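step: validate -> pass
step: tokenize input -> pass
step: predict -> running
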Amino acid sequence: MKLKDVLLLVALMALWGFNFSVIKLGTNEIDPLVLTALRFTFAVFPVIFFIKRPEVKWRYLFGYGLSFGVGVWGMTTLSIYAGLSAGMASLLLDMSVVSSLLVGWLCLNETITRHKLCGAGLALFGLLLIMLSKGESVTVQGVILVLVASVFWSVNGLIVKRANTQSVFAFNVWAMMFAPLPLLVLAMLSHGVQAVTLLPERFNGWALFSIVFQAYPTTLLGYWFWNKMMMTYSMSSVAPMTLLVPVFGILGGYWFYGEVVSFNEVMAAGFILLGLFIGQMKAKPSLNVNLADGV
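step: predict -> pass
step: emit ->
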């Protein structure tokens, strides 16, 4: 991989990691679900008018829009609003690696290697340590919400596999069109109609910055460059870079909000990151474990 591309990927991981702090900034100003709805509204319009709809069935676009918009980022934003630190949210969202193993095995008949099983075990042990932690950066409700988001992240991958499209960027944009309205409805059902009606009074420069940052550099520019790198280099070369996201997420929470991470949480983060790293290692064919065969 060219040094320039490596540096750009590291910068992208920093952008994605710091984005969790920007989400927290927005939730301090306006309703978290309304914030997420505005993020996807800005990301879709007016870009969608200049991008041809991908040749996939509408149900895949609708399903991905709900899963990505409401399931992943709606729940992640709610988890931060519920008291989970930005750093912990970025780390625990990566638990999607564990749920992806089950989704791939159950729905795509994929085999699970011993490396992946070992990595998942370490990550789950790290999650257990976090659940037992009594640090200020962790709340039970926040952890549950972000774990739900991590499962939806795995569902996203399944939908993309089923859609079988090569126009990934166009697929993302057109699918995100279906996210804002359900998010607004969910906001009113859970927080009352004032979640929307009070928006003009609470909307300010910080809220606008949070929305714009999430919509353009994080979502549109970020995913465009990521997909470009995935097309240029092998997945095994690019995918491990995502391990840097929670590192920058934790640093961002510390720098911008003074979020204190306890020693136990640092140890837990180490187990999770080590597990994710091991899970992405290549294994020899002889080491494959097919759970469908009961091994």
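step: describe -> DSSP finds 15 helices and two strands in the chain.
step: cleanup -> pass
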